[in-house]
Amino acid sequence: YTTLFRSRNLEEKLFDEWQEKLVYNLENKKIFVRDGLVDEKSYFKAPVKILYLLKEVNGGDRDWDLREYIENGGRAATWDNITRWTKGILKYKEELEWSSLENINEDSRKEILRYIVAVNLKKIPGGYTTDCKKIEDFLEKPSNINYLKKQISLYNPDIIICCGTGWWYSNYIEKGMKWEKTKRGILYNKENNKIIISYSHPAARVSSNLLCYGLIDAVKEIYKK
To answer: What is d(CA 89, CA 79) in angstroms, rounded to the nearest whole number?
Structure first.
């Protein structure tokens, strides 16, 4: 697994360099949240390599690691639905009944989430409610966009799920990228054997079954095309 562990090493090297470029906050600290590969061996062996593109983490006054947080199960509010999505996408050729996806707990999150990559647009923690202006200020800096692009390229994902971040993806990361629509109206782009889907945040106030199958059905339709 030399190649896989090299990916983690490249990830760390990129974050070290990136953190050095961030401006100091008022307390003269550079708060930086590392994210990405939860378990490189599992991710690169998965039948579909899935990257979830999120906005920012909620809170924190010191450096911390989202990868470790997810590896330890994360929390239900965000990660239960990401677990369901991942199970459904990894088995998109099958017809999964809700009974196989409904009951998610810490153990099932630990089991399934090791197959994913989770990337935040903004590496500095935010609050309970996202401040879109602060995210855009972060993305307006060309160096941050360059690092984001480098980070995403490390994982060579088959699918990028934009979790409420689709607009930023097509306006900052892949500037000018055109969206198509599935029959159900889900925005997506399929180029160079990579699928990008613009979808809701996993903690959106929608029934979990509707939120779950909306994405899984979109993936099925796009792959059929």
So the answer is: 15
